[in-house]
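Lab notebook, bench 4. The sequencing result for the construct came back, and we need a structural model before the next group meeting so we can plan mutations. Quick request posted to the team channel:

Model the 3D structure of this chain.
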Amino acid sequence: MKKQAHLLIPLTVCILFYWISRRSYTLQAGELEGVALFSLFMGISNLIAFFVPLVLSIFYMLTSWLMFGLLDETYCARKLAFALSVSFIPVILNCLIFLAVLYGIHEGGTFSEMAMQRPIFGLGIMDMERVGYLFWGGFYLFFILLIRHEFEMGFLKATGIALLPTVMVVMGRFLLSII
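Done. Here's the predicted structure in token form:
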């Protein structure tokens, strides 16, 4: 099971990110669908969306490796890859809900009209940002708990390994925005 999860879950997330991007562009296409530049931009954006989960996985693997070193803990890439893969399960659920919302929206209207539609569970496009925060919170919670379980360490160390690199990136982004 661990080997399949290690491979299937990240691949599933990549496919779902691609699918969300593709559906989003389909809703926006309208009159632009025949324009070559729009089609090129759509293809590039869809390809980038496919690779976002892979880049996130690499970020978490590398920064966790650094955090393990800083905290003097034994690092095992296989255990961490498993913990990271399983942690993406809430993100998969978020993607599936987002796809349901996107496929429930009627095509052909303006963005304002599409944004007002609430096709699934009373959720619309504009609600998905807040919903996404909840599921990404689930990702971090799973990541912390799985690091704690897989590496048999305390909750604070597992939390530091899982959250500190992301907090540092967010703080850096915030500092750059006020400069």
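The chain has one domain: 2-178.
Will bring this to the meeting.
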